[in-house]
Structure formats: C-alpha cells, structure tokens
Design brief:
It contains 11 helices and no strands. It is mostly helical and about 280 residues long. The chain has one domain: MetI-like (MetI-like fold, Orthogonal Bundle). The longest helix is centred in the last third of the chain and has 39 residues. It starts with a helix and ends with a helix.
Length: about 280
C-alpha cells in the first residue's frame, strides 16, 4: 500500500471515530426511572419511553438485530429490512432498465440529427424538471396500481439524464473520426457501433450513474406515498411509530444500497470501455 493510500485510510477511519464519539455525546440522554416520578406523572405516561434522537450505539444495536434476520415476513406491516429493500430494488431496476432501453436508442437518434435535437429540446426542458411527487397522483389515477405507478415514476424521472447525455455524447464525437469512417466506406450501423458508440460511452455511463442516483431517491418518496412495501414505506411506518432508531438505521441502509448501485454501474463502465 502506498503512503498516500495509507494516509487516506487512516484519515477516513479517524473521521469515522471522531464522528461516532461526537454523535454519541450529542445524543446522550438520561433515562428517568419510575422511582423519581410521582403517581400523577406515572398515570400521565411519563414513565413510558419517549422518542429521542438515537445514539450511534443504539443504531448499531438495532442494525445487528435487524441484519441477523433481514428477510422475515410476518404480515403487511412487519417485514424485515432485507425484504423491504428487495421490493425497492426490484421497482428501481424495472423503471431504470425501461428508461435505459428507450433513452439510449432515442438519444442516438437525437444526437445524430441536429434538426431532431433542436425540435425536441423545448419538450425535454419542460418535462425534465418536473418533480416525481407531481407525477405520482397522475400515475395512480391513470394506471390504478401502486407498484406500476412507482415503476412509471422511476422511469419518467430517470430517462432524462440518460437521454440528454447519450445525445450529447453522440454529438460530441470528433468529425475527423466520422470522416475516416466515410473514407473507409463504413455503413451507418457499422459507424454507429464501431465509431460513435465507443466514443460516446463515457458520457453515456455518466448519464446512467446520474439516473441511478435519481431512481434511488425517487423510489423512497414514491413508496412513502403509495405505502405497502419498500424501504420508503418502512421509513414512513417507523416514523409514525416514533421509532427514530429504526428511521436512522433505514436511512443508513438507503445510503449504503445507493452507494452499492452506483459502484456497480461505475465498475460496469470500466469493463465495457476496456472491452471496447
């Protein structure tokens, strides 16, 4: 391990330890025992556990308990964190892959035709900034199915970065490379797959990474609205139960899974670009 990498690891671990200690101090609460309460205060429920910002040790304790059996299913409102994440990942991948299938070919078409690009640009700019929460009521009304509605919202919100980055990557291919393909009398499809696609891959994968991040953000908000299953519903349900420890734990799991999905696409990009 190089000196720079060693320093990076040491600094990262130091930040984690310091952050853990500071959070533990800031969230430390003193528990009032029933011996210190009057009969009236006990009747008013003062001896019951009160909601508070959980400490790191409380979150770690819950994480150990939850991750020891993550896939249990005891009914509609009692599912393990692994089961909830499975539902969320399935919905994200369904909407995301649908966006990929449509956006990449369509982005190629837009990028290779300046007239088509400028004609569609106003519509893309209008639809792109619309919030996923604005699409959800319309999707529920038209589709009348919560699962398909959440998949549609993932699709409609993740398609734009892929579409725009694909079109930009295709339009940014050097003209000299295209002229060489013409000199070699390469056909349209051969030029697209052997010249344009390899040159545009870095930009395309940038769009894929951005869209995956948006998809994972959107699914949490969508599941909070539609309910039933998923990590978004899990967060909302635990918050309604005033179980902030579970809320913090689920937030950490959202971040970890989101990071994993981003790393997966990042590593895939290196593989495909290396293959090319």
């Amino acid at each position: 391990m190089s000196k720079e990498k060693l320093q990076t690891v040491v600094l990262s671990i130091t930040i984690l330890i310091v952050g853990f200690i500071v959070a533990e101090i800031l969230t430390h609460t003193t528990t009032t025992t029933s011996k210190n309460l009057t009969e009236y205060e006990m009747l008013m429920g003062k001896n019951e556990p009160q909601a508070h910002v959980p400490s790191p040790t409380e979150v770690l304790s819950l994480a150990f308990e939850e991750l020891s059996h993550p896939f249990y299913d005891n009914g509609p409102n009692d599912k393990g964190i692994g089961t909830q994440l499975f539902y969320s990942i399935f919905r994200v991948m369904a909407g995301y892959l649908l966006a990929v299938i449509i956006a990449i070919p369509f982005g190629f078409l837009i990028g290779m035709s300046p007239v088509f690009y400028h004609a569609l640009q106003p519509y893309i700019q209008v639809l792109k900034p619309i919030s996923p929460l604005a699409w959800m009521p319309l999707a529920l009304f038209v589709i009348k199915d919560s699962i398909l509605s959440s998949v549609f919202v993932i699709f409609i919100c993740s398609i734009w970065p892929i579409l725009i980055n694909t079109a930009f990557g295709v339009m940014s291919v050097k003209k000299d490379w295209l002229n060489v393909s013409k000199t070699l009398e390469m056909g349209t499809f051969e030029t697209a797959f052997k010249v344009i696609l390899p040159a545009a891959l870095p930009t395309i994968f940038t769009g894929l990474r951005i869209s995956m991040g948006i998809s994972w953000l959107v699914i949490v908000a969508a599941e909070m609205l539609v309910g039933g299953t998923g990590i978004g519903y899990y967060v909302w349900n635990e918050w309604n139960n005033l179980d902030l420890t579970s809320v913090v734990f689920s937030i950490l799991m959202i971040g970890i899974v989101g990071m994993g999905l981003d790393v997966l696409i990042s590593q895939s990009s290196k593989y495909f670009m290396y293959q090319e």
